[in-house]
Design the sequence.
């Protein structure tokens, strides 16, 4: 049962979110078409393509107080396409983090962690009912 139709996020939130993404693109540069390949949504690809084109900034010039190692790691982490971005394991082995990383004293999970609890098997009707209950909890008075 839908009580009222309105945006899930406020316009202010959407503006801040879009400005954050836009700011990241101004720093890392506009992605090329190959870098957009991981986006599953045509709308997302269209949105990114319609943004003004920006060249990648020189991170060392942009962050002059950072060490060259920190700049190098940051550049490897701030890659638009997650498939081309540095992995966590490689980032932990990066020379910049060497003073904080010792493979011999770090715990390792004995088996892959199960995130099954994040994907409960629930139907569309169950989801609708849960959303309705949540709405009623915060807006108990019916809207005319």
Sequence:
């Amino acid at each position: 049962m839908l009580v009222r139709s309105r945006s899930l996020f406020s316009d202010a939130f959407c503006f801040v979110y879009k400005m954050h993404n836009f700011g990241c693109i101004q720093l890392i540069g506009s992605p090329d078409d190959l870098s957009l390949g991981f986006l599953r949504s045509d709308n997302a690809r269209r949105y990114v393509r319609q943004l003004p084109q920006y060249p990648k900034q020189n991170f060392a010039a942009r962050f002059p107080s950072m060490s060259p190692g920190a700049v190098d790691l940051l550049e490897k982490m701030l890659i638009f396409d997650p498939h081309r971005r540095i992995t966590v394991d490689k980032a932990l082995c990066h020379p910049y983090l060497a003073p904080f990383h010792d493979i011999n004293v770090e715990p390792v999970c004995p088996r892959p962690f199960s995130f099954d609890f994040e994907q409960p098997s629930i139907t569309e009707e169950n989801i609708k009912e849960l959303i309705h209950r949540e709405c009623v909890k915060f807006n108990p008075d019916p809207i005319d």
In short: The helical segments are 11-28, 42-50, 59-62, 68-77, 88-92, 124-138. The chain has two domains: 11-57, 64-138. The longest helix spans residues 11-28. The radius of gyration is 22 Å.
